[in-house]
Structure formats: structure tokens, C-alpha cells
UniProtKB/TrEMBL annotation:
It holds the Pfam family 4HBT_3C. Residues 22-104 form the Acyl-CoA thioesterase-like N-terminal HotDog domain. It comes from the Bacteria. The lineage of its organism: Bacteria, Bacillati, Actinomycetota, Actinomycetes, Micromonosporales. Residues 116-258 form the Acyl-CoA thioesterase-like C-terminal domain. This is Thioesterase family protein.
Length: 261
């Protein structure tokens, strides 16, 4: 089923989540990508300063986010001409579900010297294949609202993966998905595409998501070049290089809690 957008504006900082936001494990709970992207949208727009770009966003996931109406509250923690720190909170049903902080950094009139991209070259999405999804996944939600192209690795098999993704629908109606929003929308899938354990036996969920961009991604597609590392004490880390068709744009990190089902 195709939906018009991930969210419908409901006025006064409120957004009604559509079924397109539903994650792969519970149709009543959102994948963290869409609400993180919605917060990025709010952080970029709040008391905006001309020329500032959202360069880092950290999202703490306090509890599962229901497929329901979200209320966003945003405030400026540190205002400035060169840098601004903004904080956002998403609430559902009277409970805070996500906290986010974002640094906006000014883009100077004269471009700064850019370092060479030392990330590995990866074939584009046209060379990728449709993924084989997990047998038990709920697919009529976020998974089907995104287009996926697997270059290496596999969704349903453990190990690192390189996967291109782009949204089939906008975040909110009649708006393009902006670069930082695209990064947050896609980056939360890094731990899923690079899963290292059998999903039938192990639970591994991220408690946060940090995305740092050294430049805004260009175009519709974003690459997840992801790998997961798991320690012996119930914690793990999913690290993803983010890239567009022109090269690396940033990185994403997710802290994982790992436990037997």
C-alpha cells in the first residue's frame, strides 16, 4: 500500500503519523527514522539563521514511538551567528518519546578547503538488487515506503552491508525531503541492514542515533555502508558511512542493547 507521506500536519507543532512510519517488528510502533527526520526538520527551521546548515543531530530514543500523533517542542540552547545548538522533544500520548539536539553551523561565503574523500568507491543504486526482507518483518510500513538497492551483504543474512535507499514519499505532504532529513530518515536503518545475530533468537535495538554531516547529501539516494560490532556485555555499536553518488557525506552511529529473546 502506498501512502501520501510519513506524516500529516495537525497544527501547532502536531503531526499525525501515517502507517508508512511503522517499523519492521511491530505495526503499532514507528521505525525511528521518520520521527528522527521530523525532528531534524524542526531543528533546522527553529529560529533559523541564514546560511546555517544542520551538521550534527543526536537522537535519544526514550521508548517505542507509537504510530500516532506526535507533538514537537523545540528551543534554542545556544544562539549564535556561526553556530547554534537547538533541542527538540517529541511527545506521544503525553509521554516524551524522543529527545534530539542539533548543531547548525554557518556555511561561509568562501568555501573551506575540503579534504579528499578516502571512502571506498561503491557502485551506484542502478547496479544494486532488491533486498530479500526478513521473513517475520512487517513490510507494509517504513520498509515499503523506502526504495532499497543492495550492493553487498543482505538484509536477511548477518554481516556488513552496503545498501542504497531513498524515500518513495515525502516526510510531510507537498515538501521535498531536505538533505539532513534524508540522512536521519535513512541512517537509523544501519543496524538493521548490518545485523550480526539471528533475529529469531536475539533482540538488538538502538537507544540512540547520531548523524554527523560534513556536507549535505545531494540527490535522492543515500548509501548506508554499515557494520555492527557486538561486545560481551549486552552492548553493541552500529557504524555507517553515509554517501551520495558524489562520495562520502558523513557518518552515523547507533548504540545497541543486545539480549536474548
Amino acid at each position: 500500500m502506498t501512502y501520501e507521506a510519513f506524516y500529516e500536519p495537525a497544527g501547532a507543532g502536531r503531526f499525525a503519523a501515517t502507517p508508512a512510519t511503522a517499523g519492521p517488528w511491530d505495526p503499532a510502533a514507528q521505525h525511528a527514522g521518520p520521527p528522527s527526520a521530523l525532528l531534524a526538520r524542526a531543528l533546522a527551521a527553529h529560529e533559523a539563521v541564514d546560511g546555517q546548515l544542520l551538521s550534527r543531530v543526536t537522537v535519544d530514543i526514550l521508548r517505542p514511538v507509537p504510530v500516532a500523533e506526535l507533538t514537537l517542542r523545540v528551543r534554542t540552547l545556544r544562539a549564535g551567528r556561526r553556530v547554534t545548538l537547538v533541542e527538540g522533544i517529541a511527545e506521544a500520548g503525553g509521554q516524551e518519546v524522543l529527545h534530539a539536539r542539533g548543531w547548525r553551523i554557518i556555511a561561509p561565503a568562501e568555501p573551506t578547503p575540503a579534504t579528499p574523500d578516502d571512502g571506498p568507491a561503491v557502485p551506484g543504486p542502478d547496479s544494486g538488487t532488491e533486498p530479500e526482507l526478513w521473513a517475520t518483518a512487517h513490510t507494509d510500513g517504513y520498509l515499503s515506503s523506502m526504495q532499497w538497492r543492495v550492493v553487498s551483504g543482505a538484509f536477511a543474512e548477518p554481516g556488513p552491508a552496503r545498501v542504497w535507499a531513498r524515500p518513495r514519499i515525502p516526510l510531510v505532504p507537498d515538501e521535498p525531503v531536505r538533505p539532513a532529513e534524508l540522512a536521519l530518515l535513512v541512517a537509523d536503518s544501519g543496524s538493521g541492514v548490518s545485523a550480526r545475530l539471528d533475529l529469531a533468537r536475539w533482540l538488538f535495538v538502538n537507544v540512540d542515533l547520531t548523524v554527523t554531516l560534513h556536507r549535505p547529501p545531494r540527490g535522492e539516494w543515500l548509501l548506508l555502508d554499515s557494520a555492527t560490532t557486538i561486545g560481551p556485555h549486552g552492548s553493541g555499536l552500529a557504524a555507517s558511512r553515509l554517501a551520495d553518488l558524489d562520495g562520502t557525506v558523513g557518518e552515523a552511529l547507533q548504540t545497541l542493547v543486545v539480549a536474548p529473546r
